[in-house]
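Entry 12.
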Amino acid sequence: MRAIVHDRYGSADVLHLAEIERPSVGDDDVLLRVKAASLHIGDWHLMAGLPLMVRPAVGWRAPKTRVRGLDVAGLVEAVGANVSRFRPGDEVFGVCDGSLAECAVARADTLEAKPAALSFEQAAAVPTSAVTALQAVAPVRAAGPGERVLIIGASGAVGGYAVQLAKTFGAQVTGVASAAKLDYVLSLGADAAVDYERGDITRSGERYDLVLDTAGNRSVSSLRKLLARRGTLVIVGGEGGGRVTGGFERSLRALLLSPFVPQTLTGLVSTMRQDDLHTLAGLLESGAIRPVIDRVYPLAESAAAMRRLTDGSIRGKVVITP
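Predicted 3D structure (tokens):
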């Protein structure tokens, strides 16, 4: 079968199309005919091998897993002996190892039935980014309507879903993005959109119950200035920082400081949970949230898609079809 592989770390130039063997199916696995996949920033980190702190898990000198891609939507072709939730022909979405291929294997507990209202391309644009956003806005969901939320990086993949989810849970949402993307943030449902280049948002005098930062370029101390006395800071992912720890250093600082201040300061590395996929499927089916696709690329142009992911112009998700 055809797949996008890389045998060394580097830029998108290391990605290339190759013929490889079809993956085998374990007892707890599902074999998928991939109909669509999408990229997120984690794919870039695994391709680049950065920050260096991730390499003990993914391969120090070269990637342990050659085929890139996590987010997937497709048709079930076969199931393992222990799998009862799915059967051949089912339409599903979720995550797997190596979705940039014609076929891929996923654990059954990382998949959910595809909402009928969504195309395969739309469903592939959901899993990692939307699950991360759902876990990031959990304090808003728990608190109920009326929370004031600031989302830094609101035009990004996680930020865009976070805007929609926070609004769905009854929050008053302000999104921070570049001037060129303020209209996009408002189209997602934000009550207000702020250009990050026009003044220091930490000096606005506004205070929020939840500050969600996906951008990676503000210190924990500056972000605390935006929080209400009992507010919550959630730092998502590992963007920013140096080659060794990346942005995870900010998350560590937040966790170490949190016990000594009235606010809750946390870093989030999301975990794929079937319950979260099920929740998202219901919200997508009802139209409460929607995937936004920036562009669809054929499998052979995955390197170009990866470049687009990081060029700063993207709105929504980049999708790839075999």
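Annotation: The first strand starts at residue 2 and ends at 5. The chain has two domains: 2-125+291-321, 130-268.
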